[in-house]
Design a protein that fits this description.
Blueprint (H helix, E strand, L loop, with lengths): L1 H4 L3 E4 L3 H12 L4 E4 L3 H20 L5 H9 L1 E4 L10 E4 L5 H14 L4 E4 L6 H8 L5 E6 L8 E6 L5 H13 L3 E6 L6 H4 L1 H12 L5 H12 L5 H8 L1 H14 L10 H8 L12 E3 L5 E3 L12 H14 L6 H23 L5 H12 L5 H8 L1 H12 L19
Parallel strand pairs: 1-2, 1-4, 2-3, 4-5, 5-6, 7-8
Antiparallel strand pairs: 6-7, 9-10
Helix pairs in contact: 2-3, 3-4, 5-6, 9-15, 10-15, 11-12, 14-15, 14-17, 14-18, 15-17, 15-18
The protein binds nicotinamide-adenine-dinucleotide.
Nicotinamide-adenine-dinucleotide (NAD) binds next to helix 2 and helix 5.
Length: 410
Protein backbone atom coordinates (compact mmCIF):
# COMPACT_ATOMS: atom_id res chain seq x y z
CA UNK A 1 0.00 0.00 0.00
CA UNK A 2 2.59 2.56 1.05
CA UNK A 3 4.63 2.27 -2.14
CA UNK A 4 1.38 2.46 -4.14
CA UNK A 5 -0.14 5.62 -2.74
CA UNK A 6 2.55 7.97 -4.04
CA UNK A 7 1.74 7.00 -7.63
CA UNK A 8 -0.06 9.74 -9.50
CA UNK A 9 -3.75 10.23 -8.99
CA UNK A 10 -5.68 10.53 -12.23
CA UNK A 11 -8.69 12.79 -12.45
CA UNK A 12 -10.97 12.59 -15.46
CA UNK A 13 -13.06 15.68 -16.09
CA UNK A 14 -11.66 19.11 -15.27
CA UNK A 15 -14.96 20.77 -14.37
CA UNK A 16 -16.13 22.00 -10.97
CA UNK A 17 -15.58 18.71 -9.17
CA UNK A 18 -12.58 17.38 -11.10
CA UNK A 19 -10.61 20.60 -10.57
CA UNK A 20 -11.56 20.59 -6.87
CA UNK A 21 -10.55 16.95 -6.40
CA UNK A 22 -7.24 17.56 -8.19
CA UNK A 23 -6.59 20.50 -5.87
CA UNK A 24 -7.46 18.46 -2.77
CA UNK A 25 -5.10 15.62 -3.72
CA UNK A 26 -2.25 17.93 -4.81
CA UNK A 27 -2.70 20.04 -1.68
CA UNK A 28 -2.14 16.90 0.38
CA UNK A 29 1.08 16.09 -1.47
CA UNK A 30 -0.04 13.73 -4.25
CA UNK A 31 1.00 14.12 -7.86
CA UNK A 32 -2.10 14.50 -10.01
CA UNK A 33 -2.75 14.12 -13.72
CA UNK A 34 -5.88 16.01 -14.74
CA UNK A 35 -7.55 14.91 -17.97
CA UNK A 36 -10.30 16.46 -20.05
CA UNK A 37 -11.33 16.25 -23.68
CA UNK A 38 -10.02 19.66 -24.77
CA UNK A 39 -6.85 21.61 -24.00
CA UNK A 40 -8.83 24.79 -23.22
CA UNK A 41 -10.77 22.92 -20.52
CA UNK A 42 -7.69 21.64 -18.69
CA UNK A 43 -6.04 25.06 -19.06
CA UNK A 44 -9.06 26.77 -17.53
CA UNK A 45 -9.09 24.26 -14.67
CA UNK A 46 -5.37 24.79 -14.02
CA UNK A 47 -5.95 28.57 -14.00
CA UNK A 48 -8.79 28.32 -11.53
CA UNK A 49 -6.74 26.03 -9.26
CA UNK A 50 -3.81 28.49 -9.44
CA UNK A 51 -6.13 31.33 -8.42
CA UNK A 52 -7.41 29.33 -5.47
CA UNK A 53 -3.85 28.60 -4.29
CA UNK A 54 -3.03 32.32 -4.63
CA UNK A 55 -6.01 33.14 -2.42
CA UNK A 56 -4.80 30.59 0.16
CA UNK A 57 -1.42 32.34 0.20
CA UNK A 58 -3.13 35.75 0.60
CA UNK A 59 -5.11 34.37 3.52
CA UNK A 60 -1.84 33.01 4.95
CA UNK A 61 -3.18 29.45 5.00
CA UNK A 62 -0.14 28.20 3.06
CA UNK A 63 3.20 29.69 2.11
CA UNK A 64 4.10 30.87 -1.39
CA UNK A 65 6.54 27.97 -1.61
CA UNK A 66 3.93 25.37 -0.63
CA UNK A 67 1.48 26.83 -3.16
CA UNK A 68 4.11 26.58 -5.89
CA UNK A 69 4.81 22.93 -4.97
CA UNK A 70 1.08 22.10 -4.98
CA UNK A 71 0.67 23.62 -8.43
CA UNK A 72 3.71 21.79 -9.78
CA UNK A 73 2.17 18.52 -8.65
CA UNK A 74 -0.75 18.95 -11.06
CA UNK A 75 -0.07 18.14 -14.68
CA UNK A 76 -2.75 18.20 -17.33
CA UNK A 77 -3.39 16.08 -20.37
CA UNK A 78 -5.87 15.44 -23.14
CA UNK A 79 -4.47 11.97 -23.77
CA UNK A 80 -6.01 9.28 -21.60
CA UNK A 81 -2.95 7.07 -22.18
CA UNK A 82 -1.08 9.34 -19.75
CA UNK A 83 -3.17 7.85 -16.92
CA UNK A 84 -1.74 4.34 -17.44
CA UNK A 85 0.45 4.32 -14.29
CA UNK A 86 -2.05 5.90 -11.92
CA UNK A 87 -2.89 4.14 -8.69
CA UNK A 88 -6.35 5.69 -8.38
CA UNK A 89 -8.36 7.46 -11.04
CA UNK A 90 -11.32 9.59 -10.06
CA UNK A 91 -13.92 10.04 -12.77
CA UNK A 92 -15.75 13.38 -12.48
CA UNK A 93 -17.37 13.89 -15.90
CA UNK A 94 -20.95 14.68 -16.85
CA UNK A 95 -23.67 12.77 -14.99
CA UNK A 96 -24.62 10.54 -17.91
CA UNK A 97 -24.62 6.75 -17.59
CA UNK A 98 -23.60 5.95 -21.18
CA UNK A 99 -20.83 8.55 -21.34
CA UNK A 100 -19.47 7.50 -17.95
CA UNK A 101 -19.56 3.81 -18.94
CA UNK A 102 -17.64 4.52 -22.13
CA UNK A 103 -14.97 6.48 -20.26
CA UNK A 104 -14.68 3.91 -17.44
CA UNK A 105 -14.27 1.10 -19.98
CA UNK A 106 -11.61 3.04 -21.84
CA UNK A 107 -9.61 4.05 -18.78
CA UNK A 108 -9.97 0.56 -17.29
CA UNK A 109 -8.16 -0.89 -20.28
CA UNK A 110 -5.44 1.79 -20.19
CA UNK A 111 -4.72 1.69 -16.44
CA UNK A 112 -5.01 -2.03 -15.80
CA UNK A 113 -4.16 -1.98 -12.07
CA UNK A 114 -5.84 1.25 -11.08
CA UNK A 115 -8.82 1.65 -8.81
CA UNK A 116 -11.44 3.59 -10.74
CA UNK A 117 -13.56 5.80 -8.50
CA UNK A 118 -16.66 7.48 -9.83
CA UNK A 119 -17.83 10.73 -8.29
CA UNK A 120 -21.39 10.12 -9.47
CA UNK A 121 -24.10 11.70 -7.31
CA UNK A 122 -27.06 9.78 -8.61
CA UNK A 123 -26.07 6.75 -10.70
CA UNK A 124 -25.62 3.21 -9.43
CA UNK A 125 -21.96 2.35 -8.81
CA UNK A 126 -22.83 -1.33 -9.30
CA UNK A 127 -24.42 -0.67 -12.71
CA UNK A 128 -21.53 1.55 -13.83
CA UNK A 129 -19.04 -1.14 -12.80
CA UNK A 130 -20.98 -3.93 -14.52
CA UNK A 131 -21.53 -1.96 -17.71
CA UNK A 132 -17.86 -1.03 -17.99
CA UNK A 133 -16.69 -4.62 -17.38
CA UNK A 134 -14.38 -3.77 -14.47
CA UNK A 135 -16.82 -4.02 -11.57
CA UNK A 136 -14.23 -5.21 -9.03
CA UNK A 137 -12.10 -2.12 -9.55
CA UNK A 138 -14.96 0.39 -9.56
CA UNK A 139 -15.98 2.15 -6.34
CA UNK A 140 -17.89 5.33 -5.62
CA UNK A 141 -15.98 8.24 -4.17
CA UNK A 142 -18.53 10.97 -3.62
CA UNK A 143 -16.91 14.33 -2.88
CA UNK A 144 -18.87 17.44 -1.97
CA UNK A 145 -18.57 20.85 -3.54
CA UNK A 146 -16.17 22.63 -3.03
CA UNK A 147 -14.04 19.48 -2.87
CA UNK A 148 -10.89 21.08 -1.41
CA UNK A 149 -12.90 22.48 1.51
CA UNK A 150 -15.71 20.03 2.24
CA UNK A 151 -14.33 17.40 4.63
CA UNK A 152 -16.62 14.49 3.72
CA UNK A 153 -16.15 11.70 1.20
CA UNK A 154 -18.78 8.99 0.88
CA UNK A 155 -17.11 5.74 -0.22
CA UNK A 156 -19.66 3.63 -2.05
CA UNK A 157 -19.34 -0.09 -2.28
CA UNK A 158 -20.71 -1.49 -5.53
CA UNK A 159 -22.01 -5.06 -5.29
CA UNK A 160 -18.83 -6.35 -6.90
CA UNK A 161 -16.32 -3.76 -5.67
CA UNK A 162 -13.35 -5.63 -4.23
CA UNK A 163 -12.44 -5.16 -0.59
CA UNK A 164 -8.97 -3.97 -1.59
CA UNK A 165 -10.44 -1.32 -3.91
CA UNK A 166 -12.62 -0.01 -1.07
CA UNK A 167 -9.66 -0.02 1.31
CA UNK A 168 -7.37 1.81 -1.08
CA UNK A 169 -9.93 4.49 -1.92
CA UNK A 170 -10.66 4.92 1.80
CA UNK A 171 -6.99 5.19 2.78
CA UNK A 172 -6.27 7.70 0.04
CA UNK A 173 -9.22 9.93 0.94
CA UNK A 174 -8.15 9.82 4.59
CA UNK A 175 -4.58 10.65 3.62
CA UNK A 176 -5.95 13.76 1.87
CA UNK A 177 -7.43 14.80 5.21
CA UNK A 178 -10.99 13.76 4.41
CA UNK A 179 -13.47 12.14 6.76
CA UNK A 180 -14.73 8.97 5.14
CA UNK A 181 -18.04 7.21 5.58
CA UNK A 182 -18.84 3.81 4.10
CA UNK A 183 -22.11 3.59 2.19
CA UNK A 184 -23.92 0.83 0.33
CA UNK A 185 -24.83 1.50 -3.28
CA UNK A 186 -28.28 2.98 -2.66
CA UNK A 187 -30.01 6.01 -4.21
CA UNK A 188 -28.69 9.34 -2.92
CA UNK A 189 -26.17 7.46 -0.74
CA UNK A 190 -26.39 9.08 2.75
CA UNK A 191 -26.38 12.85 2.42
CA UNK A 192 -28.51 13.35 -0.68
CA UNK A 193 -31.13 11.00 0.74
CA UNK A 194 -31.31 11.90 4.44
CA UNK A 195 -31.26 15.66 3.71
CA UNK A 196 -34.32 15.49 1.39
CA UNK A 197 -36.97 16.15 4.09
CA UNK A 198 -35.16 19.36 5.09
CA UNK A 199 -36.24 20.79 1.76
CA UNK A 200 -39.34 18.75 0.98
CA UNK A 201 -41.15 19.07 4.30
CA UNK A 202 -40.40 22.81 4.26
CA UNK A 203 -41.95 23.12 0.80
CA UNK A 204 -44.98 21.14 2.02
CA UNK A 205 -45.48 23.59 4.89
CA UNK A 206 -45.59 26.30 2.20
CA UNK A 207 -48.03 24.21 0.13
CA UNK A 208 -50.22 23.83 3.23
CA UNK A 209 -50.23 27.63 3.56
CA UNK A 210 -48.99 27.54 7.15
CA UNK A 211 -45.88 29.73 7.07
CA UNK A 212 -43.72 31.89 4.83
CA UNK A 213 -40.25 30.97 3.55
CA UNK A 214 -38.54 33.33 5.98
CA UNK A 215 -40.60 32.05 8.93
CA UNK A 216 -39.50 28.50 8.10
CA UNK A 217 -35.85 29.50 7.59
CA UNK A 218 -35.88 31.46 10.85
CA UNK A 219 -37.45 28.61 12.82
CA UNK A 220 -34.92 26.03 11.57
CA UNK A 221 -32.01 28.35 12.34
CA UNK A 222 -33.27 29.50 15.74
CA UNK A 223 -34.59 26.24 17.17
CA UNK A 224 -32.43 23.79 15.25
CA UNK A 225 -29.24 25.85 14.96
CA UNK A 226 -29.01 24.90 11.28
CA UNK A 227 -26.48 27.23 9.62
CA UNK A 228 -28.84 28.11 6.79
CA UNK A 229 -32.59 27.70 6.46
CA UNK A 230 -33.92 25.32 3.78
CA UNK A 231 -35.04 28.05 1.37
CA UNK A 232 -31.89 30.16 1.56
CA UNK A 233 -29.88 26.95 1.14
CA UNK A 234 -31.83 25.68 -1.89
CA UNK A 235 -31.48 29.13 -3.49
CA UNK A 236 -27.72 28.75 -3.04
CA UNK A 237 -27.60 25.16 -4.33
CA UNK A 238 -29.95 26.01 -7.21
CA UNK A 239 -33.64 25.07 -7.03
CA UNK A 240 -33.20 23.16 -10.32
CA UNK A 241 -30.31 21.06 -8.96
CA UNK A 242 -32.25 20.41 -5.77
CA UNK A 243 -35.37 19.33 -7.70
CA UNK A 244 -33.31 17.06 -9.99
CA UNK A 245 -31.70 15.33 -6.98
CA UNK A 246 -35.11 14.86 -5.34
CA UNK A 247 -36.59 13.36 -8.52
CA UNK A 248 -33.66 11.00 -8.98
CA UNK A 249 -33.62 9.74 -5.37
CA UNK A 250 -37.43 9.44 -5.26
CA UNK A 251 -37.66 7.49 -8.52
CA UNK A 252 -34.74 5.19 -7.77
CA UNK A 253 -36.19 4.37 -4.33
CA UNK A 254 -39.51 3.35 -5.93
CA UNK A 255 -41.48 6.60 -5.45
CA UNK A 256 -42.00 6.63 -1.65
CA UNK A 257 -44.46 9.35 -0.59
CA UNK A 258 -41.90 10.61 1.96
CA UNK A 259 -39.63 11.82 -0.83
CA UNK A 260 -42.14 12.88 -3.47
CA UNK A 261 -41.14 16.11 -5.25
CA UNK A 262 -42.90 19.32 -4.26
CA UNK A 263 -45.19 20.67 -7.00
CA UNK A 264 -44.62 24.20 -5.71
CA UNK A 265 -40.83 23.89 -5.94
CA UNK A 266 -41.05 22.34 -9.40
CA UNK A 267 -43.28 25.15 -10.67
CA UNK A 268 -40.74 27.66 -9.35
CA UNK A 269 -38.07 25.95 -11.45
CA UNK A 270 -40.34 25.82 -14.52
CA UNK A 271 -40.72 29.60 -14.25
CA UNK A 272 -36.91 29.92 -14.31
CA UNK A 273 -36.62 30.99 -10.66
CA UNK A 274 -33.56 28.89 -9.92
CA UNK A 275 -32.18 30.74 -6.91
CA UNK A 276 -29.19 33.04 -6.56
CA UNK A 277 -27.80 32.19 -9.99
CA UNK A 278 -30.95 33.56 -11.69
CA UNK A 279 -31.44 36.39 -9.17
CA UNK A 280 -34.65 34.90 -7.84
CA UNK A 281 -35.81 31.64 -6.31
CA UNK A 282 -37.54 31.27 -2.96
CA UNK A 283 -36.16 34.76 -2.34
CA UNK A 284 -35.39 37.67 -4.67
CA UNK A 285 -31.68 38.42 -4.26
CA UNK A 286 -29.93 41.66 -5.14
CA UNK A 287 -26.25 42.65 -5.43
CA UNK A 288 -26.20 43.91 -1.84
CA UNK A 289 -27.35 40.56 -0.49
CA UNK A 290 -30.84 41.79 0.33
CA UNK A 291 -33.10 38.78 0.24
CA UNK A 292 -36.83 39.29 0.03
CA UNK A 293 -39.26 36.33 0.07
CA UNK A 294 -40.48 35.69 -3.46
CA UNK A 295 -42.86 32.80 -2.78
CA UNK A 296 -46.03 34.35 -1.49
CA UNK A 297 -48.02 32.73 1.28
CA UNK A 298 -50.66 34.29 3.47
CA UNK A 299 -50.35 31.92 6.39
CA UNK A 300 -53.55 30.55 7.86
CA UNK A 301 -53.76 29.99 11.55
CA UNK A 302 -52.16 26.75 12.71
CA UNK A 303 -54.84 24.37 13.98
CA UNK A 304 -53.53 21.11 15.38
CA UNK A 305 -54.86 18.43 17.70
CA UNK A 306 -54.05 18.27 21.38
CA UNK A 307 -52.23 15.00 20.69
CA UNK A 308 -49.93 16.62 18.11
CA UNK A 309 -49.41 19.69 20.31
CA UNK A 310 -48.28 17.45 23.17
CA UNK A 311 -46.02 15.38 20.91
CA UNK A 312 -44.39 18.57 19.54
CA UNK A 313 -43.91 20.03 23.01
CA UNK A 314 -42.37 16.81 24.33
CA UNK A 315 -40.09 16.61 21.28
CA UNK A 316 -38.99 20.26 21.53
CA UNK A 317 -38.33 20.02 25.25
CA UNK A 318 -35.46 17.63 24.49
CA UNK A 319 -34.53 18.66 20.93
CA UNK A 320 -33.82 22.36 21.48
CA UNK A 321 -32.71 24.76 24.20
CA UNK A 322 -34.48 27.66 22.47
CA UNK A 323 -38.09 28.51 23.14
CA UNK A 324 -40.37 29.52 20.31
CA UNK A 325 -43.98 30.10 19.32
CA UNK A 326 -46.19 27.07 18.64
CA UNK A 327 -45.81 27.71 14.90
CA UNK A 328 -42.00 27.74 15.19
CA UNK A 329 -42.02 24.55 17.23
CA UNK A 330 -44.40 22.93 14.73
CA UNK A 331 -42.13 23.83 11.77
CA UNK A 332 -39.02 22.63 13.57
CA UNK A 333 -40.59 19.36 14.77
CA UNK A 334 -42.19 18.58 11.39
CA UNK A 335 -39.01 19.17 9.39
CA UNK A 336 -36.55 17.60 11.84
CA UNK A 337 -38.96 14.69 12.46
CA UNK A 338 -38.94 14.06 8.69
CA UNK A 339 -35.13 14.04 8.61
CA UNK A 340 -34.92 11.68 11.60
CA UNK A 341 -37.46 9.38 9.99
CA UNK A 342 -35.44 9.24 6.76
CA UNK A 343 -32.27 8.51 8.75
CA UNK A 344 -34.08 5.68 10.56
CA UNK A 345 -35.32 4.22 7.25
CA UNK A 346 -31.77 4.47 5.89
CA UNK A 347 -30.37 2.46 8.82
CA UNK A 348 -33.17 -0.09 8.53
CA UNK A 349 -32.29 -0.49 4.85
CA UNK A 350 -28.57 -0.87 5.68
CA UNK A 351 -27.47 2.23 3.77
CA UNK A 352 -24.77 2.85 6.39
CA UNK A 353 -24.14 2.56 10.12
CA UNK A 354 -25.87 5.08 12.42
CA UNK A 355 -22.45 6.56 13.25
CA UNK A 356 -21.65 7.10 9.58
CA UNK A 357 -25.09 8.59 8.89
CA UNK A 358 -24.55 11.09 11.71
CA UNK A 359 -21.01 11.89 10.57
CA UNK A 360 -22.12 12.36 6.96
CA UNK A 361 -24.90 14.78 7.87
CA UNK A 362 -22.59 16.87 10.08
CA UNK A 363 -19.68 16.92 7.63
CA UNK A 364 -21.52 16.85 4.31
CA UNK A 365 -24.27 19.38 5.08
CA UNK A 366 -23.12 21.09 8.25
CA UNK A 367 -25.97 19.81 10.40
CA UNK A 368 -25.52 20.89 14.03
CA UNK A 369 -26.02 17.30 15.22
CA UNK A 370 -26.32 13.95 13.52
CA UNK A 371 -30.03 13.07 13.15
CA UNK A 372 -29.71 9.73 14.92
CA UNK A 373 -27.64 10.97 17.85
CA UNK A 374 -30.13 13.86 18.15
CA UNK A 375 -33.00 11.34 18.11
CA UNK A 376 -31.25 9.26 20.77
CA UNK A 377 -30.98 12.31 23.04
CA UNK A 378 -34.66 13.09 22.60
CA UNK A 379 -35.69 9.47 23.12
CA UNK A 380 -36.87 7.13 20.41
CA UNK A 381 -40.38 6.82 21.96
CA UNK A 382 -40.89 10.59 21.69
CA UNK A 383 -39.80 10.50 18.05
CA UNK A 384 -42.29 7.73 17.33
CA UNK A 385 -45.08 9.66 19.13
CA UNK A 386 -44.30 12.77 17.06
CA UNK A 387 -44.20 10.86 13.77
CA UNK A 388 -47.44 9.01 14.56
CA UNK A 389 -49.20 12.28 15.45
CA UNK A 390 -47.87 13.99 12.29
CA UNK A 391 -48.91 10.98 10.22
CA UNK A 392 -52.52 11.44 11.36
CA UNK A 393 -52.48 14.87 9.69
CA UNK A 394 -51.47 13.64 6.20
CA UNK A 395 -53.17 11.48 3.60
CA UNK A 396 -50.03 9.89 2.14
CA UNK A 397 -48.67 8.06 5.23
CA UNK A 398 -45.31 9.74 4.73
CA UNK A 399 -44.47 10.04 8.42
CA UNK A 400 -44.82 6.28 8.93
CA UNK A 401 -41.69 5.22 10.81
CA UNK A 402 -39.83 1.94 10.49
CA UNK A 403 -41.34 -0.58 12.93
CA UNK A 404 -40.41 0.25 16.52
CA UNK A 405 -37.46 -1.86 17.64
CA UNK A 406 -35.92 -2.18 14.16
CA UNK A 407 -33.85 0.96 14.68
CA UNK A 408 -31.61 1.73 17.55
CA UNK A 409 -31.04 5.44 17.21
CA UNK A 410 -27.34 5.12 17.86
N1 LIG B 1 -21.18 19.92 -8.89
C1 LIG B 1 -21.45 19.35 -7.72
O1 LIG B 1 -21.86 19.99 -6.74
C2 LIG B 1 -21.25 17.86 -7.55
C3 LIG B 1 -21.12 17.33 -6.27
C4 LIG B 1 -20.86 15.96 -6.12
C5 LIG B 1 -20.76 15.16 -7.24
N2 LIG B 1 -20.91 15.71 -8.49
C6 LIG B 1 -20.75 14.82 -9.66
O2 LIG B 1 -19.47 15.06 -10.21
C7 LIG B 1 -19.50 14.84 -11.62
C8 LIG B 1 -19.00 16.08 -12.34
O3 LIG B 1 -19.80 17.18 -11.99
P1 LIG B 1 -19.31 18.69 -12.23
O4 LIG B 1 -20.28 19.54 -11.52
O5 LIG B 1 -17.86 18.80 -11.95
O6 LIG B 1 -19.55 18.81 -13.81
P2 LIG B 1 -18.91 19.89 -14.81
O7 LIG B 1 -19.92 20.03 -15.89
O8 LIG B 1 -18.45 21.09 -14.09
O9 LIG B 1 -17.62 19.15 -15.38
C9 LIG B 1 -17.67 17.98 -16.15
C10 LIG B 1 -16.39 17.91 -16.98
O10 LIG B 1 -16.36 16.63 -17.59
C11 LIG B 1 -15.84 16.82 -18.88
N3 LIG B 1 -16.21 15.72 -19.75
C12 LIG B 1 -17.37 15.51 -20.37
N4 LIG B 1 -17.32 14.39 -21.09
C13 LIG B 1 -16.08 13.89 -20.92
C14 LIG B 1 -15.41 12.77 -21.43
N5 LIG B 1 -16.01 11.93 -22.24
N6 LIG B 1 -14.16 12.57 -21.02
C15 LIG B 1 -13.55 13.42 -20.17
N7 LIG B 1 -14.13 14.52 -19.68
C16 LIG B 1 -15.38 14.75 -20.07
C17 LIG B 1 -16.38 18.13 -19.36
O11 LIG B 1 -15.60 18.63 -20.44
C18 LIG B 1 -16.30 18.95 -18.10
O12 LIG B 1 -15.07 19.64 -18.00
C19 LIG B 1 -20.93 14.44 -11.95
O13 LIG B 1 -21.02 13.05 -11.96
C20 LIG B 1 -21.72 15.03 -10.79
O14 LIG B 1 -22.93 14.35 -10.55
C21 LIG B 1 -21.12 17.04 -8.68
Amino acid sequence: MTNKVQNSIGVIGAGTMGAGIAQAAAGAGWPVILFDIEQTLVDQAKDSITKRFVRLVEKKRISQEEAAHCQERITTTISMDDLSDCDLIVEAIVEDFDIKTKVLTQVGSIARDAIIATNTSSLSVTDLGEASGIAERVVGMHFFNPAPIMPLVEIIRGEKSSESAIQRATLLAEAWGKTVVQVSDTPGFIVNRVARPYYLESWRIIEDGLATVDQIDDAMQALGEFKMGPFMLTDLIGQDINVATTRSVWQRLGNPSRLAPSAKQESLVERGNLGRKSGCGAYAHDDKDNNVPAVFVEPQELEISENLTNAINNFCLEATCTSGSMLEKYIFARVLGGIMNEAMWATTEHVASSEDIDTAMKMGTNYPQGPLEWAAKIGIEKIHCLLAALNETVADDRFAAPPFGTVSAN
